[in-house]
Amino acid sequence: MMPRNVLMLGNSHTAAPRIALRDRPETWPGFQPDVFAMPGDTIGMLEVRDGAIHPSDTEVRRKMRYYNGIPDLPLSGYDAFVVIGCLAFHRLAGLQEHHRSPDFPSVVRGERCRLISSGLVEALLADRIENSPTLCLIRALAGLGQGPVLFMDTVFPSVECRTDPQDFAPHVAMAARGDGGAYHARYLRILHQALGRDAIHIAQPADTVVDEVFTAPEWMRGSVRMQPRRDVPHEAREYGHANPAYGARQLDLIVAALAAL
Question: How crowded is residue 102: how many other Cβ atoms within 10 Å of its Cβ?
């Protein structure tokens, strides 16, 4: 049975599905989730206790009031949760920027690097994933025992960042070496192990992906900031956030996954 009371929560990547649902509610009849969004650097400062999400200090509480209009968020009325964004594969690319194992495609071809064992590569990835605020939040929500938890990790950066890498330089270099697909497959395997039965992972739609670890620009151009009171577009050189058209694709997947439970 389709859960009736759904909470979508996460960081700035909640903006795309929130706006898509606001502008086209008839596309997903009966799906009226609440949305709770906080800046990414505050996710680890939220505490799930006594059946509610609480800010850890006064500054986080101020941001919670600004972005959501509430000082805390009671959770008892929800029967499903959807965590969006927060954990980003591209932020893990730096782990293999200089240190790679012999099974990386670039190393197999003879490209030089500082060799480490495959086990250490996986241990480093597992440590980042296991100890991320995202996993802590997911496990806390699952621990409530109120209903399923779905998880959609952060969209791949736009393929346009290859000519203007900015913060995506390690990710762009990884893809240029031909290591992106294999490293992402490794990430997914470790992520699924970490999630276990606590959450269902929903992958990025394959037809939005370019060259294994980028997103086609038509799903990224026109992204909007996490601003609760008005639509504020990102600048043209913003390559890390998806637009409402992609948000609509996310909603399609979320609704289908919830209906299949």
Answer: 11
From the CA atom positions of the chain, what is the Rg in Å?
19
Nearest of 71, 73, 49, 72 to residue 144 by alpha carbon: 49
Distance CA 195, CA 131 (A): 12
Backbone angles phi, psi at 239, to 5 degrees: -115, 5
Side chain identity at 29, as an amino acid letter?
P
Q: How far is CA 140 from CA 148, 152, 261, in A?
A: 12, 17, 20
- Residue 38 and residue 89: Cα distance in Å, rounded? 19
Looking up tokens 């470790």 gives 190
Local mean pLDDT, 10-residue blocks, the chain (261 residues): 91 97 96 96 95 96 96 96 97 96 97 96 97 96 97 98 94 98 98 98 98 98 91 94 98 97 90
Distance CA 178, CA 69 (A): 45
